[in-house]
# Entry
Amino acid sequence: MLEIGAPYWTPSKTEIRRLESALPAFLKQSEGAAKIARDLGSYRRQYFGDSDHGEKWVLVNSFCEEYWKEC
# Structure
């Protein structure tokens, strides 16, 4: 596992599960994200934590199937 330092941190499995469970509803309400919500299972994702003034965020990089099958 990659060790990173402040303000960055590694999200726990519990934090990632919580994010994943909320992601479909979030995408459905986000303008322009309906296709992503529909095809969410075909995306590969990376997660990393960031913090700013005491607030923690989990950032997600997503790669559609068309991209990761080509690489």
Remarks:
- The chain has a mean pLDDT of 87.
- Residues 8-70 form one domain.
